[in-house]
Amino acid sequence: MLSILLGLAVLVFLAYKGYNIIWVAPAAAMIVALLGGLELFPAYTELYMDGLVGFAKSWFPVFLFGAVFGKLMEVTGLASSVARFLSGLIGSRRAILAVVIACAVLTYGGVSLFVVVFAIYPLALELYREADIPRRLIPGAIALGSFTFTMTALPGSPQLNNLIAARYLGTTAMAAPLLGLAAALIMFGGGYAWLARREKILRAAGERYESADNETAQGAAEPGAAGQRTAKQDTEGHEAGRKEAAVLPHWLFGVIPLAAVVATLNILQWPAIAAIGAGIALIAVFNIRRWKTFIPAINEGAAGSVMAIMNTAAAVGFGSVVKAVPGFASLTSTLLGMGGSPLVSEAVAITTLAGATGSSSGGMTIALEALASKYLEIAQAMHISPEAFHRVATVASGGLDSLPHCGAVITLLAVCGLTHKDSYADIGIVTCVIPVLAVVVIVVMGSMGIV
Asked: Residue 198: which domain range?
């Protein structure tokens, strides 16, 4: 067990330092193998690579289709059109709520989290300027709408976490609707309440949208901060955004592909790639006049899907080595012998591994690859619905995955031109603290037979 813990510690430390997980994961895996008594080279060339390749083989089509779908939504302007419609409906006075809802709609419709970040940021900038809200609250709002309840809790979501749990546990994307809705309400309600309170606190402290003297949200000049935008640049972006809004396609043409993905996945029970493929086809039909942009978008989406799946598959390869060392049997026994409901051990295992890898899908895959069969046996023996295990798994995967070393968090802050010091406290509350509370609630509900 010491080899496993040390390997995890190295993985977390190097990932937190910003090193690429594609080499960090096998390096950490070799530490586990060496201290765990495995032969080093077979551990890498066979155990590690079998895990990596196996995950890529199973999931690359979903990554590819999802990345292309998201990219086409972006380049055709459909994502921005839907976001602007929703923000207009809600109003700039509720800028934080508008950003959260816009992110949630796109994410629940199947758009990649990373695409949502790039698509929503210009709109968020415009709304926050109009509402005179400090810019450092933008990342928290985007994270709440993209990285939490639509990714892990809402029944029927086509996001990867939901699909992975369904495959391992033999359930569907609609599994445990009551647990999912309860968790979603806690995350959305608690997260929005936190951000609204933060807005009031910052306003009371005299903070507003950044002024022309290039000050950060704290009021201290930081001209050398990475990605820091000046107020002049924000003004130019604001005007460009208005011009862009005038030429965007109608929002309805953006909603239809999103709705089609969710409907075909959950009502018609199509495979994930078929459902996402239907969305891609509708985008192409609605934007046939922009056909020249399709191939570049598909190229970019395809390239992005390779990097995305490799990041997750690298973490899965690490898990394959962990499973092979003798200490893993002890770790499994410890988790399964925690006492109380087996949903507790599942939640602890998944949220811990998600935090260690900085990946919700990676952490959940490692845990379910090793323990799904055991949990299904327990479910049958104790008359607990596999759907409860499904929803606890997905919500738990979004508990500690957004620690500071998470790639999605780093990308979000970079896009917003802010630092961990500026905005991570809010991100941490809405994506880690509140989701963990939601896990506790649905574990209790699931243990009572509620699904």
From this structure: 2-447
